[in-house]
Amino acid sequence: xxxxxxxxxxxxxxTLGHVFADRGLLERALTxxxxxxxxxxxxxxxxxxxxxxxxxxxxxxxxxxxxEFPDATEGELSRRIGHLVRRETxxxxxxxxxVSPFLRLGVGESQSGLRTKDALLADVCEALIAAVFLDGxxxxxxxxxxxxxxPKINEPGRQTRDAKSTLQEWAxxxxxxxxxxxxxxRSGPDHAPVFxxxxxxxxxxxxxxxxxxxxAAEHDAALAFLxxxxxxxxGVAG
Length: 238
Fold this sequence. Notes:
Helix content: 40-55%
Number of domains: 2
CATH topology of the largest domain: Ribonuclease iii, N-terminal Endonuclease Domain, Chain A
Largest sheet: 3 strands, antiparallel
Distance between the termini: 50 Å
Number of helices: 9
Shape: globular
CATH architecture of the largest domain: Orthogonal Bundle
Structural class: mainly alpha
Strand order of the largest sheet: 1-2-3
Order of helices and strands: HHHHHHHHEEEH
Radius of gyration: 19 Å
């Protein structure tokens, strides 16, 4: 029998702990828009899956934290979830899954080293969670997230504060409305967008942030707000 190729999707399924009934969902979760020149934004690449996976991840991690820390306050739970679902942690999980060799990228993007970048790996992590959710349902997705993110809940350093949660606590503690985040501008090609997002708190000047995703731009805007208002940032992830 010939040795199994490194990019054999069965190997990735084994790592994920889920065998797909619809292998097309797995292939889509691994496909960057640059691999499909001329494809519309809603084409057969991972972007829509990423949107769904972000929500599934948040729900499962929230439930895991709620059960793991029965005496934790809402603020503490918010800080913990903010760190666990942030881009860097999702990219870390994608590396644990060793997804890079399986990614489908355009030639230029592959040569530029995109397959090892946190932003892409985080997106693919969320897309894979969505693919498992659509293929196997809530139970399969819950098991996947619990295996990948559960062990990280009590790791040293996982209590790092999240900029958005810190800003929200500061605003609510002063009787101000919770921060809102408004997209100001989107530029760049579909496969490498750049977002500018404003953090808005009623009665105060907004602050803009920039990032390769809306989430990253929101985080950057919240950090800018914290710095401008000289709000204590001990433990806040930059």
